[in-house]
Here is the input.
Amino acid sequence: MHQPHVFLAAHACHPAQSRGRRHTQAPAPTRSEFQRDRDRIVHSTAFRRLVYKTQVFLNHEGDLFRTRLTHSLEVAQLGRSIARSLQLNEDLVEAVCLAHDLGHTPFGHAGQDALNECMRDYGGFEHNLQSLRVVDTLEERYPDYDGLNLTFETREGILKHCSRRNAQLMERREPGDVGERFLRGWQPSLEAQLCNLADEIAYNAHDIDDGVRSGLIGMEQLCDVPLFERYRQQALKEFPHLRPQQEQRRLLNETIRRMLSDQVYDVIAATSQAIAEHAPRSVEDVRRSPAMVAFSCGMSAQSLELKQFLFRELYRHERVMHTMALAQQVVRELFRLYFEAPGEMPPAQAALAMAGDEMKRARVVSDFIAGMTDRYAAREHERLTGRRLLGD
Ligand code: MG
Here is the structure.
């Protein structure tokens, strides 16, 4: 038998008290239910595709930029480290962090916006809902059901946002499932709340690193961001030899390292305080309390400032915008081409698309495109149009 989690707090998710899976399964002999979820996610097809999906920079732009896969690993590392300090369930946090971006389209947010626009008349496209759709429906790994058959708690964490309309649809189909909390204003487990914040901590830090590496943002610009400048000054004070130009890479790494550590300690302190204040005695108490995993007010304001800086100077940079416009064109044209000629998709998708009405066909096309890696999408677009818009 697997070891019980002796160090879990009362308000953590205990595997033995899981709300279970849609298809009942006997417990695994050596692993907890959430370890099992984590393992299923790591072995899924969608997980392997993350390596060729864009975080901010397209895959062909450089080998050292983050991809969705390395981003997800960094989120999981931060999440686990905070979870252990707060006596939350580390296995559940790891499972949710590794799965949180499975539903992302190729080409990052630009791809998602384009696909959402294509799906406007067919129920829309939301990447959080798509991540859940991947683990619930699209993965084909088991003989007698679709999806990975994950526990309620992991699925709850994966669906971090959901429109009211989609929550209502889900609730009608399966009352009391993971859509319910969006209608009742409940919080998810602390483990799920933690994954959201770990995501934010991870991308703020690694987007600075990738932004500087790409040459799109400079260290001088970053000096105007108080959160960054504070740690840069600290690093320089302790290691004055990092001042010269040739040491800037090391200085940048040391600054980001300090910023990450401090944000982790800040979340642990602020969350411990919130937990002490609301004193939840179970996960059900957590769900009915206000959100508790958070930065302190000061860190929250500074993190927002950094986010706004990255938005202005990196995500909206002319060069990024230019690539993203091409990426959106690829997605829009692929959608139109497959929708009009479903036979251009592989046989399984083509058969599914041709068997249903327009709504169904649009969803099959949307699932097919959402599952693509950046380079597969660019190649398919070239095959169908004769034009290469992205990559080499
Ligand atoms: Mg993410």
Notes: The pocket of magnesium ion is lined by residues 71, 100-101, 199 (CB under 6 Å). The chain has a mean pLDDT of 94.
